[in-house]
Amino acid sequence: MNRVVHHPFFRRWPRRPWIIAHRGASGLVPENTLTAFVLAAEQGADFVELDLRITRDGHLVVCHDATLERTTDGRGFVHEHTLAELQRLDAGYAFTLDRGVTYPFRGLGLRIPSFEEVIAALPSHIGIDAEVKSAPWDPADRRRGQAIAERLVALVRARPELRERLLISSFDTAVLDTVRARDPELPVGLCTIPLAPLPEQLRSTIECGYDAFHPMDVGFDEHGAAVVASAYLAGLVVNVWTVDAPDRAVELAALGVDGIITDYPEATRQAIERALNRQRPTGLATTR
User: Fold this and answer.
1) In sequence order, what are the beta bridge partners of 266?
2) How many H helices and E strands in the chain?
3) Region of residue 282 (phi > 0: left; psi between -120 and 50: alpha; otherwise: beta)
4) Which of 22, 79, 81, 214 is the catalytic position?
5) CA distances (Å), 120 to each of 116, 126, 152, in order?
6) How confident is the model at residue 287 (pLDDT cuts 50, 70, 90)?
7) What is the dihedral of CA 35, 61, 257, 190, to 10 degrees?
8) Active-site residue flag, 125
9) Smallest Cα–Cα separation from 259: which of 77, 16, 13?
10) Where are the domains of the chain?
11) pTM above 0.85?
């Protein structure tokens, strides 16, 4: 199939599929922490995916939930706290691998990082899929999402080298449109959930003029192959989330998706590499 040239940003990672570490290597260590992102890089991830929120004093921090209770020993909304207040919390407090029998990361100094701390901690060859958290049904939260988008654009203007690393994604089109209005050259991706059929999700992404389509794996159904083909012809990349079963990752790679967003970057990468090796003549090994 002839494929339309994508946004030039994506040419930096020619090998497909990309391994995109969901909140870092979050299946193994506490999500959205420097530990999770550094481990993902060490395990061979091409990108890390992270979640951005804004503090009361205007800093960008990396935290998925609007509230603090699920992942930290804090309480309340992220946006009601200053950066200093958030960074006094224990971001490893709630992480467990044995359903609460043990909490091996409590008290080890893990904290909610600022976005700039994550950038500094990651090697420059690792891409960053920065998902701007914004609830479209909540006008105040949508304004916070747009404020995050504006700060991201300002950060890229101050640090132009980030253009080579940063993909901005969101479930909220208002966020992506804010990015586009202020810097049309930054790549943006629409995240979706299966409230509409998969082809309709892609059609909306294309009509909005975005660069990437991020569908949920749960809804990546029998239309998947056709949707990938249509996305290719339209010049979009397709990154599927969240894929933690190695066999499923291999299936998606065979369909030609561009990126696989996973909590287990090393296991996912190894499963795909094993599948590729089985397809090669004897004696030819894959390299990365």
Assistant:
1) none
2) 9, 9
3) beta
4) 22
5) 6, 11, 15
6) very low
7) 170
8) no
9) 16
10) 8-68+113-279
11) yes
The DSSP H or E segment spanning 269 is helix 265-279
Within the chain, strands assigned E span 18-22, 47-54, 60-62, 127-132, 166-170, 188-191, 212-214, 237-240, 259-262
Q: SS3 helix, strand, coil % of the chain, rounded to 5?
A: 40, 15, 45
Please give the angle made by the CA atoms of 61, 81 and 153, to the nearest 5 degrees.
35
The model's pLDDT over 39-76, given as tens digits with 9 standing for 90+, comes to: 999 999 999 999 999 999 999 999 999 999 999 999 99
Q: Is 185 helix (H, G, I), strand (E, B) or coil?
A: coil
CATH architecture of 8-68+113-279: Alpha-Beta Barrel (3.20)
Q: Is 114 helix (H, G, I), strand (E, B) or coil?
A: strand
Q: Can you say whether the dihedral through the CA atoms of 99, 102, 106, 108 is positive or negative?
A: negative
Render pLDDT for 195-218 as a digit per residue (tens, 0 to 9): 999 999 999 999 999 999 999 999
Tokens linked to 279: 């397809």
The single residue of 6, 7, 64, 81 carrying the catalytic annotation is 64
Fill in the DSSP letter of residue 87: T
Closest CA to 50 of 139, 115, 144: 115
Catalytic residue list contains 22? yes
